[in-house]
Amino acid sequence: MTERRKLLERTLRVGVFLGALVPLARILVHALTGGLGTNPIEELLHRTGWWALAFLMLTLSVTPARQLTGWGALIKLRRMLGLYAFFYASLHFGIYLGLDQFFAVEYILADITDRPYITVGFAALLILIPLAVTSTKGWIKRLGGKRWNRLHKLVYLAAALGVLHFLWLVKADMREPAIFGWILVTLLSYRLLAERLRQRKLRRAKRQGATAALDADPVPARTR
Amino acid sequence: MLIRRPLDIRESEVTEERLYLNRRQFIQRAATLGAGLGLAAAASPLISCGTDLDAAGDASAGRSAQQEKLTPYEDVTTYNNFYEFGTGKGDPAKHAHTLVTRPWTISVEGECNKPGVYDIDDILKRYPAEERIYRLRCVETWSMVIPWLGFPLADFITDLEPTSHAKFVEFTTLYDPGQMPGQRRPVLDWPYVEGLRMDEAMHPLTVLAVGLYGKTLPNQNGAPLRLVVPWKYGFKSIKSIVSMRFVREQPISTWMRAAPREYGFYSNVNPEVDHPRWSQKRERRIGELRRRPTQLFNGYAEQVAHLYAGMDLRRYF
Asked: Any idea where the domains of chain A sit in the sequence?
């Protein structure tokens, strides 16, 4: 790998790392200057929730982007983006617990059990916890690539529940959650399609392999 | 006939909000003192009619909307729902400048002896506005305390002479996507429609508001004329009204049409009847950090509970 390429990749990683902190910085600045508006707690909840979903979508975009551009180094952004999704989701939940509900346990428990949109949002956060914990190199080794991969497929479920959480809390204007929904559907469809193409290629390769074997047969049975 | 021109006297327009509030407090204290000194009669004309009604609510609510802190003008006018201008809470304040409120007429139709088209300025002249300080509880669980300027809907309805067939009143908001950009998307089934049972419409707490904080109603709050029904969730208080129809059958409101399982015709504030998706037990008063308990009929049970005597409020939500 050339030095220039290495520099480019490092710049990208640092850039994404810092860029992902910009929403947080904006939230903090607004919180300190009264820029969160008339209902600041609701605004905090909306913004952190929105960014948690956005980072989940970005995380899921890494693989397609890598495959489509052929730029393998992009994979190094995936863990970082995933951890940021978890970070904003945790902030979101923390604000709900502390500021919105003031740790009123009975209300929180009732919310989680009785309000489907909160149930699914909470489930999404719970799913993200083991994924965040096992995101280290050590854990990949410990679990083995195959098992680790299987575990981390749960991110699709978390993303779907996150979108549902948004969709179910909206009163009438479905536009924003619907956009998240379509992004998720697109990303998942890409994977299904890519997987199908891969399988087909594999089959073809196998068949071609067989043909090649035939060709190699000393008895010349075919013309080219 | 007494014809006052209420909006000519906009004292609070020349008074800073803080002073305005202090003055109110002063008047209240004076009234309390005055009552003891037998001067109540002298003091009471200074206080709006709403005071008496709210004072009556004290016994049931423990505190009246008057004693609760008014939500600042800035918040009342920049944070609200008026989907005709967008679904964000800040959208109405941002986009409502396109609404043209003059000339403006209200078309009165249906089961009454005086149907016709009524000009807003004639209405303003005929019905003197008085101040009503009411709690406003949004179905989304936030709430405010707002000093409205308005007149009892009952006064207007009485003059329209509804017939005995008039069981409900149906209200409609202006439909004009040119002025109301939110109507360009089918978020709701435009135009916005709301309704009240006749006895609810005639209740003395029900007002048609033309202002707030002593000023003409800002566009984003439903200018030039809106309904205020303080014991119901905010969406019942329809804004920028262009027609009123006296009907025999219960009207289907816009929100009932949008989600019949979630929004009923009555939509009375009730902490015991949850929205299917969220709890209505508590609310966040704008400006306060912690949620406070929501009161039955938004604290106006004393005045309005009899309207629903014997009704299953879970069924008629």
From this structure: 3-208
